[in-house]
Prior knowledge:
Pfam families: Bac_luciferase. One of its GO terms (molecular function) is oxidoreductase activity, acting on paired donors, with incorporation or reduction of molecular oxygen. Helices cover 43% and strands 16% of the residues. The chain is α/β, with parallel strands linked by helices. The chain has one domain (5-229, 280-327): Luciferase-like domain (TIM Barrel, Alpha-Beta Barrel), CATH 3.20.20.
Amino acid sequence: MATINYSVLDLATVIQGHTIADSFNYSVANAQQAEALGYTRYWFAEHHNMVSVASSATCLLIGHIAGKTSTIRVGSGGIMLPNHSPLVVAEQFGTLETLYPGRIDLGLGRAPGSDQAAALAIRGENMNAAFHFPQDVASLQHYFAGDHPNGVSAVPGQGLDIPVWILGSSLDSAKLAAAKGLPYAFASHFAPAYFLQAIELYRKTFKPSRHLSEPYVLACVNVVAADTDAEAQYLATSLQQLFKGIITGRRHPLPPPVESMAGIWSAAEQEAAMQMLAYSFFGSKETVQAQLNDFMERTGINELMATSHIYDQQARLKSYRLLAEALNA
């Protein structure tokens, strides 16, 4: 496992009883530790109208974290491209790459990253933008190459080598990533249903490009590591409560852990949550190491990205330390 790249996905989680400013400060501390521990990249995800997620202004957070670190790659997991003009994204990430050369990643998704009401507020009359995702990705690549057919230039942006990733949770995203010869990041931390099929399809249909000579798969998973299995299971109840809120539509900031989920969720809610959390690894360093070793052997992924919704900041930092130790053992 010591040869695999390992990274972090951060949603700037809003924690019950804490402020959004606290969330941003925790992200800085986490990114700085991740850099020191050898993590490859630190990504933020674009979401809107979610009380537990403060990473809506994704580009701003990427710049903030890049400015507080020195070597770790920082990027988006992802920018929801149908919410934005490809030209504006090219300019924004061109600015970031110019400020922090060789450290910026641009992961692209087609989902709104929000509910329909928020998507309407963002997109206005352009609610069918997701259907134009392949064309928008191509347009964005033209802006970076400096050869856009409309004659408009992205300044800054053109001529810069900014790695573009396709993010997804479906077979469509796998097909697009393969056709374009781009690295593929799968959202297996909350949408695991098509994970195995998608990465198999991506590998089978991959076409080498000037960006990538062979398939590259990143899988995002949930990780909660602690000194003991029991402590990790206890800490993970915050995540389980968060997913109950997603399922019921009653979202709240990340709550503190509880001794038992019994009585907090119904059997149906538990089943639905556990399906979404299929690729979650909770336990001691040794337990997580064994679980992840099996997962990576079965999937053959090139990179593991962990997201850890843990209420206590020190426990969160410790979880990422233990994960790094497990992966480097």
